[in-house]
């Protein structure tokens, strides 16, 4: 339920855009870890600097690393200076003021006793800093620790709001939400024993990106696109999430995860659901997430009997990226020499509903590809009859709408125009909109947006349990099949390329080709 | 509106220093030193303001910009609104022209600067066009926006609207940036005001804030009811961070209950190098904001300040609320730039303060509730310049009802 306590403050009325949550404490489990230092603390600092955090806001870092408050504050100040997207914009006075709101508890949080101490500290912050019993628990630990932490929060009485109706308690869970359908369901069960779904925020930072949010604005705030957003006018849709980086020292994690779990199950499926969902009645968490789940339910199961027609699995070999030679995946540290883990996947998916029947959704994602780019391409159907067939020799291109998620976020539309000449020559031209050029300024980071949403109680950009399970339901049979197949069927591709040739054939067999990125 | 541009090169393309635009100079002028971020392209001279000719010149300018051998980056023409600016003399015109160059880097638009000099002779209605380009990093496209300078002298001011109206970009919002002293629109702008969605004024430039704000309140009321127009005050926008910080003090349940018990409020500011000359207007707006939000009834008129201290009396129900304005004239030891202190009548009282520190751009807040350790914090307080304020205001097309209420309360107070 969205936070309304701030709305009771008459001085808040009419205040533009500045969304400030009611006073609260945030507890970070895994506070000395990478995610906390690289993402969470810098994002919180920027929110503090921009006066978007409430008066009395406090952070309690929890971990095994033996820090005291002062050491933790020093380490987090260093993290802000080191990992800020714009280190030059770090202001020491406000940084000092921010770190004064940080506290640390050293303990084994796998042990129930640690939570008594945590409860006491939260209580004293409520009294001293006016945080009013509002608590946000952030699980930034390895996923294996999630169920234990959640269980202890529940049994220690910290999961339920202190004063129901007045104060709130929420929990933020980082991806991955399980590693297959069964584990996702187990995690859901563990979460549900302590928290209600309205308290749970499954975070996928991809959904905090401005351009991903703009997908909904583009579709539902413009009258001209939605009427043609269906099988009658659209030939197919491509979703590409490409990285030029390799596993970057995360070989051990990647060997267990693989590309499908790391990117497709969450980021790509989230984007797919936003592209394909029906219009919600309002931009409200329940409405939006209902529609996302509905479209996920309509995704046709992958045909495992004809896998080659629908799926390509790849793994990068050596090659060149940005002028430097890079190693093959199998020679990366902590990667098995005969690893069968995929670093690339391309899928042809169908959504069996009235809007999308027979429209293929080609999705691909991979590491060590030609460049870092995420884009959604909507290719429209050809005109039903080519009236210029006799006058022009050139094939007339189909209209394409491209939505670039990163980098150079924006939207472009290709259409055909007559080339200025005495003869009928038709050429494609491009009309383009780019965020940076039209609006200027730096958008907030995804974590800033999402952390603020958690504190404000807005779940719109977070995954609900049904969407998570539906994505696993779709992909788990494929993962099991790949496990059975081992190395069989995995295609090697050169680093710096656009993936295995089989990915091109996936579209060629349908008389199509990937849009050039 | 966006469009790519391609055409043959045009040797008339000239580059100008964005800090030294010279309306009225000649075509084909040599390049002048340009800023690292902007360049100005011009295709015209100050000449009779004939709309079809201006449109034609704009087209020529874009063709030239797109294919000039001196254009390193591909050019994109962009516009998300029409920005009209109104000034009353050429000096202000030149200054405003420069400011608009900065504004369009953030808000791509067609900008039309109106310079009206009804007392000047000879009678004349001239215009000049240019394109301001925001230079991107290497390889990216440069975004260019049009600036049209229209100067009217003598009786010709009555034809100003006939030039401006056809040049407004269809289907996009129209903002009018009023850079003349008081907001007293002359009748020759009636047609322009009819198509304007939002007017931007700066009450910080008002000479007698109480009287000028009250007059603005009446005009706002008239235009709002007759034309559905929205108003922005850059001076009110300057107060947004301060208002946010005051409001944040009262977000917790316990602190919020203190709002109804406030009995003393003081505003303290220092005359000095950092004084923008608009602190009186600031304080007046802040006082009226607190009064209108918290239901305080003014007990007497607000009179022009003649000394360093002024006391205003309000009532909430039967309880008095005292607001004090204190001007520190000491310049040698400046302790604070601006300080707001709010105190409850309870014993011991709860005290809340927001203090702009001399350490530039820093603001400290402090909340002292009985029986609790004081809560202090420091946040960034960016002092926005005029261009940044305009950019901020251009993001908001809708009416600011809270500001309208504040103006209405000031008008009532002045009339007491």
Provide key terms for this protein.
heterodimer, A: 517 residues, alpha/beta, 10-stranded mixed sheet, 6-stranded parallel sheet, 13 helices, 34% helix, globular, B: 416 residues, 12-stranded mixed sheet, 8-stranded mixed sheet, 11 helices, elongated, disordered N terminus
In short:
The complex is a heterodimer of chains A (517) and B (416). With 517 residues, chain A is of the alpha/beta class. Chain A is 34% helix and 20% strand.
What this model shows, in words?
- Chain A has 517 residues and is an alpha/beta fold.
- Helix content of chain A is 34%, strand content 20%.
- Chain A has helices at 34-49, 69-83, 92-99, 114-129, 146-155, 181-194, 210-220, 251-276, 285-297, 435-439, 446-456, 465-485, 501-508; strands spanning 25-29, 58-63, 102-106, 135-139, 169-174, 200-203, 234-242, 311-321, 324-326, 344-349, 361-366, 373-380, 400-406, 410-418, 426-434, 490-495.
- In chain A, strands 7, 8, 9, 10, 11, 12, 13, 14, 15 and 16 form a ten-stranded mixed sheet that branches. Chain A has a six-stranded parallel sheet with strand order 3-2-1-4-5-6, with helices on both faces.
- In chain A, strand 5, helix 6 (181-194) and strand 6 (200-203) form a beta-alpha-beta unit.
- In chain A, helix 1 (34-49) crosses helix 2 (69-83), helix 1 (34-49) packs across helix 11 (446-456) and helix 9 (285-297) runs parallel beside helix 12 (465-485).
- The longest helix of chain A is centred in the middle third of the chain and has 26 residues, at 251-276.
- Chain A starts with 24 loop residues before the first strand and ends in a 9-residue tail after the last helix.
- The mean pLDDT of chain A is 90.
- Chain B is an alpha/beta fold.
- Helix content of chain B is 30%, strand content 31%.
- In chain B, the strands form two sheets. In chain B, strands 1, 2, 3, 4, 5, 6, 7, 8, 9, 10, 11 and 12 form a twelve-stranded mixed sheet that branches. Chain B has an eight-stranded mixed sheet with strand order 14-15-16-13-17-18-19-20, covered by helices on one side.
- In chain B, helix 4 links the parallel strand 10 and strand 11.
- In chain B, helix 2 packs across helix 10, helix 5 (209-227) packs across helix 11 and helix 9 packs across helix 11 (401-415).
- The longest helix of chain B is centred in the middle third of the chain and has 19 residues, at 209-227.
- Chain B is elongated.
- Chains A and B meet through helix 3, helix 4, strand 15 and helix 10 of A and strand 1, helix 7, helix 8, helix 9 and strand 19 of B.
